[in-house]
Amino acid sequence: MKAYVFPGQGSQFVGMGKELFDSSALAKALFQEAGKILGFDITEVMFDGDDEALKATRITQPAIFLHSVILAKSLGDSFRPDFVAGHSLGEFSALVAANALDFASGLRLVAERAEAMQAACDITQGAMAAILGLEDGVVEEVCGKITGVVVAANYNCPGQLVISGELAAVDAACAALTDAGAKRALRLPVGGAFQSPLMEPARTRLAAAIENTEIRSPHCPIYQNVTAQATTDAETIKLNLIKQLTAPVRWTQTMQQMIADGCTEVIEVGPGKVLQGLFKKVDRALETASAEVI
Q1: According to the model, what pLDDT value does residue 205 have?
Q2: CA-CA distance, 64 to 53, in Å (whole number)?
Q3: What pTM does this model have?
C-alpha cells in the first residue's frame, strides 16, 4: 500500500517550484491563482528570493503548501494514494491533495495560519529545541518537572523529539535532558514555540477560519497529527485541525500506525526529503521516493 506524505516548515529552499512552473501549464496557472488569492506574487520569493526572506513564516508556510499541492495536482492520474499524511503544515497540503479542501480554501487557511502563528510569536518569547538520543517517556518526564511552560511538541522519529515552550523553560529543559543522557539538545532557529500552549492565540484565530471553511470527506484516509489515526470523517478532520497548533505532532506514531496498517511505499510530495529519512528510521525496508511529474 502506498502513502503520500507532505512536508512541513523547514523544508523550503530558494528555487522550489520553479521547474514545475516552467514545465507545466497547470502548475503555472495555479501559481498565478495563488498570487491573486494572497495579494502578492509569492513566486518572486520562492524562485528568486534569498534564504532569509523565504524563512519568514508568512512566506514559508504558503510557499511549502503551494509547492506540495501543485506538485500533487500535476501528477494527474498517477497520484493514487491509499492514504495520506502531512507533518504539521503539511497536513493542510495533504487535505487539499486528497480533495477534502479545495485549493483556494486551503491556501487561505494556510495564509491565515502563518499570520496567526507569527502574531503569537510576536507577543511571547518562545523557543524550540531538538532532543536526540532519549526515549520519548524520559523527555516527557523531564519536561514535566521544569518550572514554566515546556512540552513535547514534535515526535519526529524514535530518538528524535522536539520540545517547545517559554525560552527560559526550554533552556532549563535542555540542560536537564543533557544531564539525563541526551546525545544532543539543540535549540532550533525558529521564531516561536510552535505546538505548545503559547500558540493558543493563534489556535483561537485559526479556529474561526476553519469553522467557516467547507471540509469534505477526503478520497482516502488521512492520518492526522493530533491523533496519529486514520479518518475520512469531515467533522473529525475539522476538530483535529483546530487542535493542531497547540497539540504535539505525533509523527513517530503516525509512521508506526501507517506501517501497521500495511504501508509498504512512501512518496514525499513537496520540497526536500526529510520525511523519507524519518520513515527509514522506523523501517529501513520501506520503499521511499520523491514525487516527480513524468
Answers
A1: 95
A2: 14
A3: 0.95
* Set of cell numbers at residue 200: 493558543
Which whole-number Å values give the CA distances from 101 to 59, 84, 92, 242, 285, in the listed order?
21, 14, 8, 15, 33
Rounded percentage of the chain residues whose pLDDT exceeds 90: 89
Angle at 17 between CA 16 and CA 18, to 5 degrees: 95
CA–CA separation, 155 and 153 (whole Å): 7
Q: Which amino acid is at 111?
A: A
Q: Is 288 strand, coil or helix?
A: strand
Instruction: Write out the DSSP string of 166-196.
Output: EHHHHHHHHHHHHHTT-SEEEE---SS-TTS
Q: Provide CB contacts within 8 A for 250, sequence distance 6+.
A: 155, 225, 226, 227, 228
- Residue 294 predicted with pLDDT over 80: no
Task: Give the domains, in start order, of the chain with CATH numbers.
Answer: 2-122+197-290 (3.40.366.10), 125-187 (3.30.70.250)
Q: How far apart are CA 42 and CA 49, in angstroms?
A: 10
| Helices 200-211, 103-123: inter-axial angle, 10-degree rounding | 160
Whether pLDDT at 159 is above 90? yes
pLDDT digit string, tens, across residues 255-269 = 999 999 999 999 999
For helices 200-211 and 234-243, angle between their N-to-C axes, nearest 10 degrees? 160
Percentage of the chain modeled with pLDDT above 70 = 99
Question: Are the CB atoms for 117 and 123 separated by under 8 Å?
Answer: no
CB pairs under 8 A, 24+ apart, for 142-145?
Answer: 142/173, 142/176, 142/177, 142/180, 143/173, 145/176
Mean local confidence (pLDDT), 115-136: 92
Handedness of CA 12, 18, 19, 20 (dihedral sign): positive
As a whole number, mean pLDDT of residues 165-176 equals 96
Determine the Cα–Cα distance for residues 58 and 62; give it in Å rounded to an integer.
Answer: 7
